[in-house]
Amino acid sequence: MNKQQALIQILTFGPQRDAAFSVFVNAENSPNDPPFEVSHQHLIMVLEKYLADEIDADDIEQWANLIDFRADIDGSAIEGYLYALANPEMMGGGENKANILRMLAVLTQS
Fold it and tell me: Which residues in the chain show pLDDT less than 70?
């Protein structure tokens, strides 16, 4: 597994996610590597996993913070959503299912 594959496992909560963290942490960073772009589709997939109880609110918050704080991950396409997910206490009390359903409705309409 290379760094790009590891990032995909991490950001999609894939089946090899635990092993991917080790690969990702130990991968060398090259300034010439373009950042991994997180799309609306990635966000939709993660929100659907939350609604299916495959991941929890802490997982979503950590996911958003990882994207927000890494220079090698570009979350600009979902920046507003990342802020809301990384700061649940500032956004009305957290990632409850109703809030996530509203986010999904907006994402799937655009």
Answer: 91-95, 110
Inter-residue contact 54 to 64 (CB < 8 Å) = no
The model's pTM is 0.86
Alpha helices by DSSP H, listed for 12-96, are 17-26, 40-51, 57-69, 79-86
C-alpha 26/C-alpha 44 separation (Å) is 28
User: Which two three-digit tokens encode residue 1?
Assistant: 């597994």
- For residue 69, CA distances in Å to 5, 11, 52, 63, 83 come to 19, 14, 27, 10, 11
Across the strands, what pairs with 82? none
